[in-house]
Design brief:
By secondary structure, the protein is of the alpha/beta class. 36% of the residues lie in helices and 13% in strands. The two termini are 36 Å apart.
């Protein structure tokens, strides 16, 4: 099972290339979720990518979600402005949060809205989360991934020009997260064992 389709499968690769499964910053945040955290219904928006498309998407989503229930938490993806928090209607904007804080918020989301960048897809899969994915216009790899993953039935997809509030807040699909992560673990273990074996033979 793979998340990239023909972007990385069915092509000729160098003999020293190995598939090692999904990579995610959240894999290494093994701290359990805080049981004392107040649980509340919320949507999560994860912004990413180049300007001006990041800002265009942000403004579209703000217009559609600021007066909607439940509240929306929007990650702006700006590490240089760590700690900045702004509120507009029912939307709370975070410039940046730690990986553990993001994991806690994303995992508890009613709905997730994000770009279809491959790093983002892998991070969502690592958290057993699906999402509505909106490819960045003109980025063909994101447009392909959105179509591919939607056809698989693992994510919803909509173009930036077709966003409506009804589309944004419909319930997500299901994804075979467990099997993907199991296969990823096997691939990484095999690659590491091969690397260690070669190292021992050469030393």
């Amino acid at each position: 099972m793979n998340l990239t389709g023909r972007l990385s499968h069915g092509i000729k690769l160098p003999c020293n290339v190995r598939y090692i499964g999904i990579l995610s910053r959240f894999i290494y945040t093994d701290q359990p979720l805080n049981e004392n955290t107040v649980k509340f219904h919320h949507n999560t928006v994860m912004l990413s990518g180049p300007e001006p498309q990041r800002e265009i998407l942000k403004q579209k989503l703000v217009t559609l979600l600021k007066d909607k229930e439940p509240i929306t938490i929007m990650f702006e993806g700006k590490p240089g402005k760590r700690g900045e928090i702004v509120t507009n209607g029912n939307i709370t904007f975070y410039s940046h949060l730690s990986a553990f804080q993001m994991k806690e918020i994303i995992s508890g989301s009613d709905n997730i809205i994000t770009r279809s960048g491959y790093s983002t897809i892998m991070e969502l899969v690592s958290l057993n989360c699906t999402a509505l994915i909106i490819p960045t216009p003109g980025q063909t790899e994101q447009e392909y991934l959105a179509e591919y993953l939607s056809e698989k039935g693992w994510f919803y997809s909509v173009s930036q020009s077709e966003i409506t509030a009804e589309i944004l807040l419909r319930k997500g699909k299901t994804l075979c997260h467990g099997e993907i992560k199991r296969q990823s673990h096997i691939l990484l273990t095999e690659a590491l064992n091969e690397l260690l074996e070669k190292h021992h033979r050469s030393s």
